[in-house]
Amino acid sequence: MLTARSVALFALAALFEIGGAWLVWQGVREHRGWIWIGTGVLALGIYGFVATLQPDAEFGRVLAAYGGVFVAGSIAWGMAADGYRPDRWDVIGALVCLAGMAVIMYAPRDH
Q: How high is the pLDDT of residue 22?
């Protein structure tokens, strides 16, 4: 059950971080304005809070593992929001990152 909760929290964190960064990008690079930028900044702040809800108490581990989620999630977000079409190397790289995330977060440990 803790693993399912952790995976859900990683997905939620990705939604807020990647979505927030995308909103800031849209506000600045696509000239959509301060409302988009401000909303993105708020989403980024919520991401920081969501990351603290992980069951694992090790900051370095949680953020390192989240990096793999961020890589794969960013590619997925680009596909959904901007029509980005990853090539096979993007997909392979994202899968490698997710595999690394799983090892960092969910490998059995001696406590």
A: 98
